[in-house]
Every structure is written in C-alpha cells, then in structure tokens.
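Dear Dr. H.,

I hope your travels went smoothly. While you were away I took the liberty of generating a structure for the chain from your last submission, since the lab meeting agenda had it listed for discussion. I wanted you to have the full record in hand beforehand rather than looking at slides cold. The sequence, exactly as received, is reproduced here:
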Amino acid sequence: LPASLVRFESGRAVQAMTAALLRAGRRSPCLFCGPAGYSCEDACVGAFAAALGEAGLSMAPEQLVRAELSREDAFRKLANLLRGFRPDAIVTTSESAAAGVTEGLRLLGFSESEIPVCTLGEEHWNRSTHSFALYSAARPAIRMGTAAAGMLLAQLDSPGAAPAFEELPCRLEPLAVPPLPAHRAAPPADTLRVLMLDTPFVRAFRSL
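The corresponding predicted structure, in token form, is as follows:
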C-alpha cells in the first residue's frame, strides 16, 4: 500500500558521531545496531562503514554487533564482544541498547573515558533527550509529528497526489570526546566480579 513516510536521518547522525570519535583518536569504534533487513538500521551500518572509510580504515567483523536493541540483549552481546575484542568507543542506534552497554561497561570496571558510548536518542515527546550514554543525538517526536501532520493535510487537499517522503535531521551538538586514558593495568587473575540481588543472604555473603 503506497503511503507517505517521515523519519530522521539516523545514518548521517551515526556517521557524524563516528567521524568525531575517529578524529579524537578512537581508531577501533564498535557499532551496536538492530537486525539486518530494517532500512534504518542498514543505513546506520553503511554510514558507520563510510566514516571508517573516510579515515582510511575498513570495518572488521567484530566492529559490527547486531542486537535486538533491548537492554538485556545489548548487555549480553557486550559481554561476548569483550572476550575477544576491546573497542575504544561504542556507537548504538537505540537508547535501550546504550543503557545495556553502559551498565555492562560499568559492571566490568570500564570508565567513560576508556570506552565512551554514543547513541541515537529516542523520539521523546519534548525537545530534549535523556540518555545513559556520554552523548546522544536528539530525535524529538514532536518534530516528526509536526511533519507527519503537514503531510496529512497536503494529502487531504490533494487526494490524488503521490505519497511523500521526508527525512528530518537529528539535532547534533558538538561531541566532546574524553582524551584517551593512560595504559590500564590488567586486573589480578584472581579477581572475581559477581552480580547478585540485594538480599539478606547476599549481605551475609559479602561479610565473609
């Protein structure tokens, strides 16, 4: 069924964020995106690869992580990723994925200066975006709704007109990437990190 479409230029935002990270010396960024086959997610992958290409780099397989864009799946994919590859920055296409990645990094002992996380913001009803990440590109839903309403009025005025398509730019502020930290010593081999519920039994276990 032919229909009009309005969306944000997510690919351009991903390319801009990746380019800013590369200029700041982050040469091994990683992209967390949704499943293949979705035009918006595929556009973000192409934009990420384009930013690497402009910097004279090629995208390695481990730099692209396909996730379900939920907090839990992003957390799990991050844990698997860090077993064999350590990125120096992470870009996500979802606020939920950014939350899972950020929580995983904190649990594993990484700071924002070691592995900064940048994400596409959710389409909030207002003009701001609230993010767990270091940097988030705003995609306010009120702006998309205004554009969609204009399309609808135009179609009501001209019912026989062809479907319209419009891409809205994301609101991008200057990205301040933290400087690369000094060499980080590896933790002792006998260090064990355990994630447990806050219960009386766990509190008794911590006192041992």
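Two observations you may find useful: The chain has a mean pLDDT of 80. Strands lie at 5-8, 29-33, 64-66, 89-92, 117-120, 135-137, 165-168.

With kind regards,
E. W.
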